[in-house]
Amino acid sequence: MAAVIARLYELGFAAERTTDSAAERQWYRRDDVGELSREEAAVIAQRVVPAFARANDLPDRADTLTDLVAMTLHRCFVTNVVHADSPLGTLHGECGRAVEEATRAQLGAARASELGKAIEADLAAGRSSKPD
């Protein structure tokens, strides 16, 4: 079990052993996993985008950008398959590039690249799904 938890952390997911025996017997259905991915995407966007918007003097666009980044991350999470033997950080680069591409029209190339890198850094930090 410790090896599984360690690998999940390496892949950027929070994991812990539960003492709830009902939870141990239940597998998540595909729709449940998609919803968890949507929640995770929203948490990451809410953690990264407001700080990015403040640093780039874009306070009036923070909400719109947060929504766009959350939607883009969710799409990235559910369309990219990560296997146990996938290289560490596989999703980090994919999702960072997806955010950069999705925001380029609104932010311009340089700022979109900066936001994509901020998302990559957040994913690489392996934070839990709790907002800061």
Structural features, described:
It is a single chain. The chain is mainly alpha-helical. It has one domain (2-17, 29-124). Helices cover 70% and strands 0% of the residues. The chain has helices spanning 2-10, 21-25, 30-55, 62-79, 90-107, 109-124. Helix 4 (62-79) runs antiparallel to helix 5. The longest helix has 26 residues, at 30-55. The two termini are 28 Å apart.
Précis, in short:
The chain is 70% helix and 0% strand. The protein is mostly helical and 132 residues long.
Walk me through the topology.
Elements: H1 2-10, H2 21-25, H3 30-55, H4 62-79, H5 90-107, H6 109-124
Helix pairs in contact: 3-4, 3-6, 4-5, 5-6
Instruction: Estimate the global geometry from the Cα principal axes.
Output: elongated
Q: Note the total helix count.
A: 6
Quaternary state of the chains:
single chain
Estimated radius of gyration: 16 Å
Largest sheet: none
CA-CA gap between termini: 28 Å
The percent range for helix content is: 55-70%
Sequence stretches where pLDDT stays below 50 over 5 or more residues:
none
In the residues, how many domains can be counted?
1
- Helix/strand-derived category reads mainly alpha
How much beta, percentage-wise? under 5%
How many DSSP-defined strands? 0
H/E topology pattern: HHHHHH
